[in-house]
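Record format v2
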Amino acid sequence: MIQVRKLVKRFGLKTVLRGLDFDVQPGEFVALLGPNGAGKTTFLRILASLSRPSLGKVSIAGYNLPAQSAEVRRTLGVVSHLPLLYADLSAEQNLQFYARMYNISNMDARITEVLQMVGLENRRRDLVRTFSRGMQQRLAIGRAVLHNPEVVLFDEPYTGLDQDASQMLDDVLRNVAARGRTVVMTSHDLARAEDLCTRFDVLSRGAITASAAHSELGNSNLLTFYKHALAG
Amino acid sequence: MTVSTQPTARPAALTSFLKAVSAVAWKDLSAELRSRELLSAMMIFALMVIFIFNFALELQVRSRQEVTAGVLWVTFAFAGTLGLNRSMSIEKDRGCLDGLLLAPVDRAAIYFGKMISNLAFMFIIEAIVLPLYSVFYNVNLLNAGLLGVVLLGSIGYTAVGTLLSSMSVQTRTRDVMLPILLFPVVIPVLISAVKASTGFLNAAPMSDILPWLNLLIVYDVIFVSVALMAFDYVVEE
């Protein structure tokens, strides 16, 4: 579903990604782990077609970036630590706007379905500025899956959430993944990643330094695997 | 039950483009209708400028007609800068610009949508300022020619302003960066708009006004085209 070969990204003289290779099969839920500054967000922004690769090949669902970026964007949903929502519009108006941008048919029915999925049906006419951080993040997920994308990218979705909101987000993430979607999530929360994901990749100094399926972790936990990957 | 979300069967490219343009403009106007942050800031600023000029330039009727166009366009340009800055800041602050760029639409549609909403905000301010200015300065501004110049000048100003504000919003000093980038580029619009407006207000012959009108039209066409082509590169990393 996602294939990345020898990806390089430079910002001026600074090289952030150094020949990164990355593959994701359909239906996988991959956790992209790594320390701050490793290049996780930059990598996700390239996958989302928000940033151009300096070198290398990126293809998603058979479409190449940056040449077929509009086709790639149609197959993608993106959730970042920012909500990407308009505070002065209601939840429903935000989703209506994105539904128009994605040219979605059955707009009203789909919006109702998505609001029910993220548990905000009873707040549909309320302004987003009145929502808590957790509610905004749930609505952001609703926005990201509104067009039923094959691939969903999550960039630190738990940032700024309290325990209750994080648990609620766990359920929404499981729901998103349970529908056969391919998911890539960056996170610093190893316990949550271990609980949710089917594969773990460690990104360090601009390249993937270790990769393991959940079943390959064996008796060691994700923290041990992660520490080994960074030390190596 | 799962609702089908298939995009409607390959709509014509133009229809899809126009839908995206109208969605962006609708979103901006709906949000502003609710918050009124942008329009109130632009309006208060514009009224203050007119008020200050009214007392600073205690002029004879003849001299007043000479400076009217200049004062008007200074007011529109400064108030417009406030609006352009705010309009793009709203997109940047909550990551909404990324949300727009993630949509599978031609990015020129995003530019056009933003430009149309910025133009609508300019027109609203102009519709309030022109009658007030007529009262303050005792000058009749209900002149079809002048209104045409206001239309052409506003299009040129927002065409460049929307592009440059999407550039300046990426910088840390975005509030000061926009006027620094914008005013040198819109000098041809402001000069020709002032000259053409003065011509209409003083009932000058059309042969004197026409060169300035032509310059305005050419500027509008060139800069709308340049902005459409450059927007994608300006917003992508």
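The CA atoms of residues 8 and 75 of chain A lie 23 Å apart.
The first strand of chain A starts at residue 2 and ends at 11.
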